[in-house]
Structure formats: structure tokens, C-alpha cells
Amino acid sequence: MQTPSSDPSERVGPAFSVDGMLLARNKTRQAIEDIATRIRPGMIEEDAVAMAKRTLIDAGLALSWHPTRVRFGANTMKAMRQASAPGVALGEHDIFFLDIAPRLDAWEGDGGKSYVVGDDPGQARCARDAEALFHDVRGVWLRERLSGQALYAYADRQARAMGWELNFDLPGHRVSDFPHAAIHTGSLADLAIRPSEMRWILEIHLRDPQCRYGAFFEDMLLDDAHYPA
After folding, report:
1. Diameter of the chain by CA atoms?
2. Domains (ranges, CATH) in the chain?
3. pTM above the 0.90 mark?
4. Which of 38, 88, 130, 226 is the most buried (most CB within 10 A)?
5. Distance CA 154, CA 45 (A)
6. What is the per-residue pLDDT across 63-120, written as a single tens digit (0 to 9) for each?
7. Strand runs (DSSP E) across the chain, as ranges?
8. Please, which residues have CB within 8 angstroms of residue 46's CB and are 6 or more apart in sequence?
């Protein structure tokens, strides 16, 4: 593991633990998959959110520092702080994403991923591209030691080359022992130093230029050992 910088933006709290952060992250990723398998066409978005919260609680995770979000269809275009249009049902050929931020004991988890049902090729490509761009940017972070600002500038260029718009209302953020906001509230996209691993969440939210749908992927910045080959 790299040695974190001494920059104030990368401080941690007294309960910080690498093992704890990784356990929270791994349980978050598993919860995302568990929730996604329970979502079916015809489900109403609000019911999916309630189901996601129950799934997290049943997994021993606390509902923590930002709302549990499930977004269906056109609501996947919206920034996270925008409320979903109410009563949206998942269609037979549709896209949805999850954005969850549970807490395991003292440690924050945060993760998101997009899924498609049916066979709309544009939606499927958007979901694939959001995850692929996350890993593209993560690879640049590993190889080139760029600042957070440079990483998001790169992500913006790549998103445009792929035919999407990158939503800068989701600019990445700190993660730590709870609450990270007591340590640092600035975004990854504004960070002037190279972000250290186990400290930052990289967020990628792609939007269709025709405003039909979007796709989202986020995870902690980690090296390749934490991802399947």
C-alpha cells in the first residue's frame, strides 16, 4: 500500500483501520449485488429503495451518511441531490443504478453500480462504459500519479470520446472512519494532490446527450489486487 500524504485532506480519525475499511468496502459491494438481484421490471422505485434499506440492515450494516438511492429509467439522469420523479416503475427494457453508503461499525462504505434489464443496446453500453471509465481513470491514477483535478479532467475527455456527458455534480469525495465530513468535505475533482488509496471515492456518472438515461459507478480508489482479474 502507498504511504498517504501529509496533506490535511487525507487525515483520518482515531478509529481508522485498513482492515476495517476494506471489510466495509467488501460488504458494500456484496450488498449492491444482493439488492440488484431483487429488482425486477414493474417494481416502483420507492419500493426498491425500501427493499435496499432492509437488505443493508439484514446484512448488519447501518444506514449512514447519505441516503440509500435506487434510480430507475429517466431518474438515472438526475444528480444525486436531485429528488427522483415519484412513482417511476422499472420497464421491461430499462436501466437502473444503486448508490449506497452503509456503515460497518466505525467504517464507512460507499459504492454504486448500474444494471440493465431487457436488451436496449444504448443503455447496456452506458452501464458498461461507466464501469469501464472508472477503471480507466483508476489505472491512470495508479500509473501516472495525477492529482484529483487531473483525473477528472481526463475522465471528462474520455467520457466525451465515448459519446457521453460526465456529470460533475458527482465529483468524488473522501471516505474514512465515520464521519469523514469531520475531517474533510472537499471533492476529489478539486484535489490538487495525488489521492492516496483507502481515502477517496471515485465517482463516474455518465449521461446520455439526448437526456434519456444515465449510468453510475463508484468505488474506493484501490490497486488492482482488490479487483478480480
Report:
1. 50
2. 15-77+88-226 (3.90.230.10)
3. yes
4. 130
5. 33
6. 977 899 999 999 999 988 899 999 999 999 999 999 999 999 999 999 999 999 999 9
7. 62-63, 69-72, 94-100, 102-104, 107-108, 111-117, 165-166, 173-174, 200-207, 214-220
8. 86, 87
